Amino acid sequence: MEVLEVIKARRSVRAYRDVPVEADKLEQILTAVNQAPSAGNLQAYEVYVVERPELRKGLRQAAFDQEFLDQAPIVLVFCAHAARSVGKYGRRGEELYCLQDATIACTFAMLAATALGLSTVWVGAFDETEVSRILGLTPNHRPIAMLPVGYSADHPRNRGRRSLSDLVHRL
Ligand SMILES: Cc1cc2nc3c(=O)[nH]c(=O)nc-3n(C[C@H](O)[C@H](O)[C@H](O)COP(=O)(O)O)c2cc1C
Questions:
Q1: Coil, strand or helix: which one is 74?
Q2: How many A from CA of 54 to the centre of ligand 1?
Q3: Which of 12, 100, 154 for a ligand 1 pocket mutation test, highest count of atoms within 8 Å of Cβ?
Q4: What's the pLDDT at 111?
Q5: Ligand 1, from 121, 126, 147, 162: best to mutate by most atoms within 8 Å of Cβ?
Q6: Exposure class string for 135-151: b at 16+ Cβ within 10 A, else e
Q7: Is 90 helix (H, G, I), strand (E, B) or coil?
Q8: Is the predicted pLDDT of residue 22 greater than 70, yes or no?
Q9: Residue nearest to atom 22 of ligand 1 (CA)
Q10: For the sheet containing 142-150, what is the strand order?
Q11: Complete DSSP assignment for 98-115
């Protein structure tokens, strides 16, 4: 798919089929993630690929019982890694760039998954401490976003957006 078609086709999917994601598709998604821009090219983020059912179940609980987290065969957990950015950028690296790096990486994963016929939903509502505990994360890997990846069992509608005239401020 052309990138603009991919952007138009993407929807948040909250129901997944019980079908595994092919290893080569996962590899392509992770390779796309690794192409994401980052402040100073420091890539101040980490990606955890969570496949074990008991861990996905834990993530579901940590995310206030969002059930699709243990329905999808894979959950990617994007973590900000401030220590990679703070040396060069100080407070801005610690408080902003590492979060932006992680969120851009997650966006690349969403779009790559869509291009490969897979679906995702960005999950931001979760207890960070719980996610860190369940996955055994080191304290300097802060979970920022979780992304279930799998084959859709749903056809979500287009949610609509603000009008460009409301959103865009031309100066
Ligand atoms: C920062 C962020 C946090 C989100 N957290 C959740 C979440 O915890 N659970 C969920 O079901 N959707 C979550 N979403 C998905 C949004 O609800 C969704 O993107 C929005 O309603 C627009 O729908 P669309 O993605 O299908 O266009 C989140 C999206 C973003 C960007």
A1: strand
A2: 24
A3: 12
A4: 98
A5: 121
A6: bebeeebbbbbbbbbbb
A7: helix
A8: yes
A9: 159
A10: 45-50, 74-80, 142-150, 119-120
A11: HHHHHHHHHHHHHHHHHH
Does residue 37's CB lie within 6 angstroms of at least one atom of ligand 1? no
Decide if 77 contacts 143 (C-beta within 8 A): yes
Can you read off the two tokens belonging to residue 12?
């948040």
For residue 1, what pLDDT band results from cuts at 50, 70 and 90?
Answer: low
Type of residue found at 51: E
Strands (E) in the chain, as ranges, are 45-50, 74-80, 119-120, 142-150
Q: Are 45 and 80 a contacting pair, CB within 8 Å?
A: yes
Question: With a 6 A CB cut-off, is 156 part of the ligand 1 pocket?
Answer: yes
Instruction: Give the tens place of pLDDT for each residue, 102-136.
Output: 999 999 999 999 999 999 999 999 999 999 999 99
Please say whether the beta carbons of 144 and 106 come within 8 A: yes
Q: Can you give the pTM of this predicted structure?
A: 0.98
Q: How far apart are CA 90 and CA 88, in angstroms?
A: 6
Helices (H) and strands (E) in the chain, counts: 7, 4
Q: What is the mean pLDDT of residues 21-32?
A: 98
